[in-house]
Amino acid sequence: MASLAPLPPFVPASESWDSYLTRFDCYLQANELTEVSKEQKWGLFLSLCGPEVFETARALLAPEAVQAAPWDTIQEKLCNHYVPKPSKIAARHAFYHRNQAEGESINNYTTALQQAAMYCEFRDLDDALMDQIICGVWDIRLQRRLLAKPDLRLQKAIEEAVASEATKCSAQEIRKASSPHLARKPVPVHHEEASSDEASSSEDDDVHQTKRECRKFQKKSKGQPECGGCGGNHSRAKCRFRYAICRKCSRRGHIAKVCRSAPSVNPLH
To answer: Distance from CA of residue 63 to its chain's centroid?
Structure first.
């Protein structure tokens, strides 16, 4: 089989170390080199990894010569350098603070928890994942249902969460489908209709307010006689003009505004 193009060197700024090791394994498989000895593997790897990785390997293995180092030792040294293993406490802190984000699916959340648990060294990984799924789900009603279930297992908790998520999505789709006219109406029309309705409502309120005030005034003045002294809505006995002298007829007891006397005729005219 003809040899394929050489494997590009490792570039830390654009690729993870785990990804590069996986590509190296794929390169060996594509070139039918999976059965070669470990010495040949490290020889190929150090020839293809690029000068930066090669110099790093020399420094990490010193004073031992890089050519004499076993393949497993080279892998371990380089892996600890490029992918330092986080502390168990720090990993667990990140795991227990990883809650489901709004809009994040249950499957994506579960996968993120599995990745966060890689360096936690849990004795029972399934129990830890189930506990954090229950504690970290976004839907409070789902959380209450999971807490109420006795002897819950990880797979059952995931199935329950996925079913709840699917039911919620279906309900939203049904609501959208049952109100198609809301989606078809342009936004400007809504604003215009709202403005028209608001103006009509304002006018109706003014009319009703006027009617209420009229009824209130009529109710207040109902049964009160018109005062003959001044024309007001009170009894004559309470009128403050009951002893006034009319300027029109010069009589006492009323004012000129309500005087019923005929105007006097000047005899000179």
So the answer is: 57
